[in-house]
Amino acid sequence: MIKLVPLEEIVCFEAQRQYCYVHCREESILCSTHSLTELESILPSPPFLRVHRSYIVNMRKVVNIALVSPTKYELRMREGRVTRVAVPRRNVPDVKRFLGLSS
After folding, report:
1. In Å, what is the CA distance from 23 to each residue of 4, 76, 90?
2. How far is CA 20 from CA 50, 72, 81, 101, in A?
3. What's the whole-model pTM score?
4. CATH class (in words) of the domain with range 7-99
5. I want to staple 54 with a disulfide (CB 3.0 to 4.6 A). Which of 15, 50, 77, 94 is the partner?
6. Distance separating alpha carbons of residues 14 and 24, to the nearest angstrom
7. Which of 25, 50, 46 is nearest to 35 (CA)?
8. pLDDT in tens, 48-66
9. Per-residue 3-state assignment (H helix, E strand, C coil) for the chain
């Protein structure tokens, strides 16, 4: 079955092993036709940004970026089945720049 999901309803895409999931507000859908690398090349930026090797996030769904330990950051999402997304320290400057925050 094919399900079309409007981009504005997508919170993030997540890679788990050989699978890719589309996380929306109320459901997660298996997306078996594209890898994150392929999605990254076709999704509009903004609002989508690859923040982790396993996540592409709709940055319009982000509430804030938080330092949760000396070496760990995470994005807190406004809605959806996925509410927190880890951000590697090396990607934090890009994420902050994308959000219009100082790095």
Report:
1. 13, 14, 24
2. 14, 24, 15, 29
3. 0.90
4. mainly beta
5. 15
6. 11
7. 50
8. 999 999 999 999 999 999 9
9. CCCCCCHHHEEEEEEECCEEEEEECCCEEECCCCCHHHHHHHCCCCCEEEEECCEEEEHHHEEEEEEEECCEEEEEECCCCCCEEEECHHHHHHHHHHHCCCC
